[in-house]
Write a structure and sequence with these properties.
108 residues; alpha+beta; three-stranded antiparallel β-sheet; 3 strands; 25% strand; rod-shaped
């Protein structure tokens, strides 16, 4: 009887740790996807602002479309000349990953 209780306890602890690690892993993947979406959105907005790509959209509209295609939501976008700064959010299991990126001509 004691061996059964011990085995049951060990299995419960192992299952709990596995679920926790899966949640942490999912959150880490979501954070990396948000970072990639922010980078892509910022690059798209900067390219549109500089005229490197021809589009009928404003730079922030294009950034929103690129972020959405990457599974994120654009929450802030600002262009200053040829520089674009964006912020995106991506959700996973009730948690929100936020990422910011800037793209444009190098300073200096």
């Amino acid at each position: 009887m004691a061996g059964t209780a011990l085995a049951s306890g060990i299995l419960t602890v192992a299952a709990t740790l596995s679920l926790g690690l899966a949640a942490v892993g999912g959150a880490a993947v979501t954070a990396q996807r948000a970072a990639g979406a922010a980078d892509a959105a910022a690059l798209a907005a900067a390219d549109a602002a500089s005229g490197a790509i021809v589009t009928g959209e404003d730079p922030c509209g294009l950034a929103a479309r690129v972020a959405q295609a990457s599974g994120a939501t654009l929450v802030a976008c600002r262009t200053d000349g040829l520089m674009a700064t964006v912020q995106v959010e991506s959700a996973y299991a009730g948690l929100v990953a936020v990422s910011r990126a800037r793209a444009g001509q190098p300073e200096g």
